[in-house]
Specification:
The chain is of the alpha/beta class. Helix content is about 45%, strand content about 15%. The chain folds into two domains: about 240 residues, 3-Layer(aba) Sandwich (Malonyl-Coenzyme A Acyl Carrier Protein, domain 2), CATH 3.40.366; about 60 residues, Malonyl-CoA ACP transacylase, ACP-binding (Alpha-Beta Plaits), CATH 3.30.70.250. The strands form two sheets. It has a five-stranded parallel β-sheet with strand order 7-2-1-8-9, with helices on both faces.
């Protein structure tokens, strides 16, 4: 059984888009997507520095565009409904945070243009919300899970990402994060993240209605294959419900650990992470032992991705987890 996953914010690095633009047609495609997003995605993905692409309003559509570029290289042109001959290509799709917009386009819930337009609005709304208060996010690595969650709560922070594999992300005001750093949980290491706000917390509430208004103008389709939700790891079979969850997730914690558990229950045997890849395959090394993993970082990885699809797609996957919502 093969799953495609898409990373979230923080995965971007300067220049990561450059090799993808060498593929036939992708330079023109990104020019068109730049018009949709209202940003020069080509410049941001090739020439801009780390601080520029850290900007939430830039990072989010840039990440989704890159993920869609990698998906089209691996799976063929994306359309709605996506994934022609989907039953033989992909058994499940999941995205982490903003990666859920990539997942929505890969499975045909939204067209690529719809996903980029909506995520651009999300990025602008979240950037505006982040500007109201100085906030941030810190990864907590290791420690005892219960101790970490208790320490995060006692610090007045939110466990905004529960990523499993010994990683929980605390989010909140910079003042509280600084105090948390002075008194970390036992046996845990802290790593501040390169993001511009406390995403997936109450601090993002102002962005929710803004994005919901844009989403209400869309007509989502049902996904072409199993599509997992960050809210609880459930397989969501209704496109409108998935988009509703996308909007609500802006101010709600990401439970990637629950998505990982669902993939394990489904019997996943191979996982392909779309560009800019590495984060989710890193988590999967611990959480999905024995699963073959591939981080599609450049076009050089496409042939191996194609081979994995042929080897693993459609193999011994049950029809359902019983969690469709």
């Amino acid at each position: 059984m093969l799953v495609i996953v898409a990373p979230g914010q923080g995965a971007q690095v300067p220049g990561f888009l450059s090799p993808w633009l060498e593929l036939p047609g992708l330079s023109e495609q990104f020019a068109a997507w730049s018009e949709v997003a209202g940003l020069d995605l080509v410049r941001y993905g090739t020439e801009a520095g780390a601080e520029e692409i850290r900007d939430t309003a830039v990072a989010q559509p840039l990440l989704v565009g890159a993920g869609l570029a990698a998906a089209s290289a691996v799976l063929g042109p994306l359309s709605s409904p996506a994934l022609p001959a989907k039953d033989s290509l992909v058994d499940a799709v999941a995205g982490h945070s903003v990666g859920e917009f990539t997942a929505a386009a890969v499975t045909g819930v939204l067209s690529p243009d719809e996903a980029l337009s909506l995520v651009a609005e999300r990025g602008r709304g979240m950037a505006d919300a982040a500007a109201r208060t100085e906030t941030g996010m810190t990864a907590v690595l290791g420690g005892v899970r219960e101790d970490v969650l208790q320490a995060v709560e006692e610090a007045g922070l939110t466990a905004a990402n529960d990523n499993g594999s010994g990683q929980i992300v605390a989010a909140g005001t910079t003042e509280r994060l600084a105090a948390f750093a002075e008194n970390p949980p036992p046996r845990a290491r802290l790593r501040p993240l390169s993001v511009a706000g406390a995403f997936h917390t109450e601090h993002m509430a102002p962005a929710v209605e803004r994005v919901r208004a844009a989403a209400d103008a869309l007509s989502p389709q049902n996904p072409s294959t199993r599509l997992l939700s960050n809210a609880d790891g459930a397989v969501v079979a209704d496109g409108a419900e998935y988009v509703r969850r996308l909007v609500a997730q802006i101010s709600s914690p990401v439970h990637w650990n629950a998505c990982t558990q669902t993939l394990s229950d489904l019997g996943v045997t191979a996982l392909i992470e779309l560009a800019p890849a590495g984060t989710l395959t890193g988590l999967a090394k611990r959480a999905l032992r024995g699963v073959e993993l591939l981080a599609v970082k450049t076009p050089d990885d496409v042939d191996r991705a194609t081979a994995l699809i042929k080897e693993h797609a459609g193999t011994s996957a049950p029809a359902s987890t019983g969690q469709e919502g």
